[in-house]
Structures are given as structure tokens and as C-alpha cells.
Design goal:
There is one protein chain. The chain has 334 residues and is an alpha/beta fold. 43% of the residues lie in helices and 19% in strands. It contains nine helices and ten strands. It has helices at residues 44-66, 85-102, 111-117, 162-172, 180-187, 210-226, 230-261, 276-289, 306-318; strands at residues 4-9, 15-21, 24-31, 75-81, 106-110, 130-135, 140-147, 150-156, 265-269, 292-294. The longest helix is centred in the C-terminal third of the chain and has 32 residues, at 230-261. The protein binds 5'-O-[(R)-(carboxyoxy)(hydroxy)phosphoryl]adenosine and zinc ion (ZN). Zinc ion binds at residues 111, 115, 136, 270-271, 303. It comes from Mucilaginibacter antarcticus.
């Protein structure tokens, strides 16, 4: 019988459940938490409470959409980490309880590996080895992917993540959280050459975004002092220029890594891979360098259980199961 995997993702502020049958993701239900908007960022305590409310309906919907009965599930895959501990606890506890009640195996998944493995959901899959630029609200990594679970982080941020830089910039501009999608929206209407923000000079494949954040803060502060309407009058150009700089920082490092490792299959993953400028920038760079570029479908860019399901399927095939004593990890290396 083809394996039926139920997958749970609850590492941050999205509660998600997915069902995958024989390696095909049949449902991917995502319950977003709008409660954090008023606070300008995710409030961990509130996130875990809302996960608790959302998790059962999300699982029920995922099973219904996939037309699968809970009695037919062969294994439960869940995000073990990294993420917010209180949020992870809800998903891990649910997965354990479900597995215990049905006497089926548990499969632990690393959230960052799952973002990379989202590329194996569709029919257009990269070939090993490939490079994946994983950019989210908490991480910025260049990953050399040698096999499904054999990945090496060759570069990462030394301070803020790319998504954090987007979100902090939007906060400075007075836009609501999460700001990344709004920066994207305004950037489409602006000129990326309007303002020049510095590119940090960091050795190797590592990144740094904290200096950029400070320079944006000072730039806005100084201009608003001269003209109180500066943001309102120039928001599109500011967003286009900030986005352009973040994209160039990311893609310049990716190009260096692709050259050094002599890689032609190059992928994007994580929430920031939903960004239009980054998607277009990668395509352009790929055409110039003869790369095969892989960009996930929108629903598999930001946090989702579909990616946990596909990762779970590949672990299921290996018989790689977790025990009932498994605990979530806020920090979880590859
Ligand atoms: O992977 P993800 O959903 O959650 C984490 O694991 O962090 O990524 C969320 C991040 C946020 O910083 C959000 O602002 C950013 O992804 N993001 C975007 C876009 N959509 C989401 N950033 C830029 N442009 C977008 N269209
Ligand atoms: Zn994520």
C-alpha cells in the first residue's frame, strides 16, 4: 500500500497540516495568525495559544481535502525545530498523541531542511548536488544539498535574517507586520536606483544585514527631519531601493558559491523566496550563467506543512522514525 503521511508544521505563527500519499502532496492547509499584526511582530505566548486552537481544525481540513480517513494514516511527520519553543510544543504534542492513539510511527523533521525539500513536491525537481538559498524571517543560508538529508550550510547570516531586514524596514516605514509582502508591493511601483544603500563587505558566503538596517534607519530619520512627508511621498522608491539592495546582497553571494562549487542547479526557498524582485533576479542571473533555476510555488515558500510532508515521505522510505520521547528544539542544527 502507498504510504499515507500526515504532516504538522507549527514552528512560528502559522499552523499548518498536510497529507501526502505515495509522495504526492494532496492537501496543504495553512491557518495564519493575524493576532500579531497589532504588535508589529510575533508574540510567542500568543502564537502557542492560537496554535492550540487551530491545530485540530487544520488537521481535519487537511484529511478531508485529501479524502483520507485518520485511520488510514501510516505515519505522522512534524517539525521538531528550529522555531519558537511554545509553538513547536503544540505541534510535537499533537503529533505524539495522534501517533500514540493510532500506534503508528513518528517522523521528526528539521524545518530548514524541509524548506529545501519543498522542491521535491512538484514534478520539476532539482538534481543533486544543488545549491539552495534559504531566506526566511529567521534564517538566511546558502545550502549545498548533496542528498535529501545530506546538506551543508556553506554560508549564513552573522546577524539579522533577510526577512527580518524586510520586516524591520517596513516597521521603520510605519507599515504593519509582516512587512515583506508590503515592501514587495510598493517596490513594484518604485525605482530601485532612487537611493543607494551600502553592500556589506563580508568574507566568504556569509551575510550581514544589521548595518544595512542601521543605514536605512538613519536615512529615513534624516530625511523625515527635513521633510515630514518624506516617507509618504517616496515609499515606492524607498521600498524598491531597499529590496534591490537586499536582493543584490543575496544573489551576489549565491553566484560566488555556484562558481566555487561548480553548480548549475540553483534553488530558492523560505518566506522571502515569495519576493518578486528576488524571483526575477534569480531568473535573470540564471539565464546569464546557464543555471537551471528552481523557485517554489507560492504556497510552499512561506511556512507550510506540505514541505514537512514531503520530507516525512523521504524519511519514511528510509525507515527513519523518532521515539515517543522526542522533544522539540528551539535551535536545531542540520
Ligand atoms: O519562511 P517564513 O514563512 O517563516 C520563517 O520561517 O521565518 O518566512 C517569513 C518571512 C517574513 O520575514 C516575511 O516578511 C517574508 O518571509 N516574506 C516576504 C514576502 N513574503 C514573505 N519578504 C519579501 N517579499 C515577499 N513577498
Ligand atoms: Zn520557515
Amino acid at each position: 500500500m502507498p504510504p499515507v503521511i500526515l504532516a504538522i508544521e507549527s514552528s512560528c505563527d502559522d499552523t499548518s497540516a498536510s497529507v501526502c500519499v505515495d509522495g504526492i502532496v494532496l492537501s496543504n492547509v495553512i491557518a495564519n495568525q493575524s493576532i500579531h499584526e497589532a504588535y508589529g511582530g510575533v508574540v510567542p505566548e500568543l502564537a502557542s495559544r492560537v496554535h492550540q486552537q487551530n491545530i485540530v481544525p487544520a488537521v481535519q481540513q487537511a484529511l478531508a481535502k485529501a479524502k483520507v480517513s485518520k485511520n488510514d494514516v501510516d505515519a505522522v511527520a512534524f517539525t521538531r525545530g528550529p522555531g519558537l519553543l511554545g509553538s513547536l510544543l503544540v505541534g510535537v504534542s499533537f503529533a505524539k498523541a495522534f501517533a500514540l492513539s493510532k500506534n503508528i510511527p513518528l517522523i521528526e523533521i528539521n524545518h530548514m531542511q524541509a524548506h529545501v525539500l519543498a522542491h521535491f513536491i512538484g514534478s520539476n525537481k532539482p538534481s543533486f548536488p544543488f545549491l539552495c538559498l534559504t531566506v526566511s524571517g529567521g534564517h538566511t543560508q546558502i545550502v549545498l544539498v548533496k542528498d535529501y538529508f545530506d546538506m551543508e550550510v556553506v554560508g549564513q547570516t552573522l546577524d539579522d535574517a533577510a526577512g527580518e531586514a524586510m520586516d524591520k524596514t517596513s516597521k521603520i516605514l510605519g507599515l504593519p507586520y509582516p512587512g515583506g509582502p508590503l515592501i514587495d508591493k510598493h517596490a513594484r511601483l518604485g525605482n530601485p536606483e532612487a537611493y543607494r544603500f551600502p553592500e556589506p563587505q563580508i568574507q566568504g558566503f556569509d551575510f550581514s544585514f544589521s548595518g544595512l538596517k542601521t543605514s536605512i534607519l538613519y536615512f529615513i530619520r534624516d530625511n523625515v527631519a527635513k521633510n515630514p512627508d518624506f516617507i509618504a511621498e517616496n515609499i515606492n522608491d524607498i521600498c524598491a531601493s531597499v529590496e534591490g539592495r537586499i536582493v543584490s546582497i543575496l544573489l551576489n553571494k549565491l553566484k560566488k558559491a555556484a562558481d566555487l562549487y561548480d553548480i548549475k542547479d540553483v534553488a530558492l526557498a523560505g518566506g522571502v523566496s515569495a519576493n518578486t524582485g528576488l524571483r526575477q533576479g534569480l531568473q535573470k542571473m540564471g539565464e546569464k550563467n546557464g543555471w537551471n533555476c528552481f523557485i517554489p510555488e507560492m504556497q510552499y515558500c512561506t511556512d507550510n506543512a506540505g514541505m514537512i510532508a514531503i520530507a516525512g515521505y523521504h524519511k519514511y522510505l528510509k525507515g527513519d522514525f523518532a521515539g515517543q520521547d522526542v522533544v522539540p528544539l528551539a535551535r536545531m542544527p542540520f
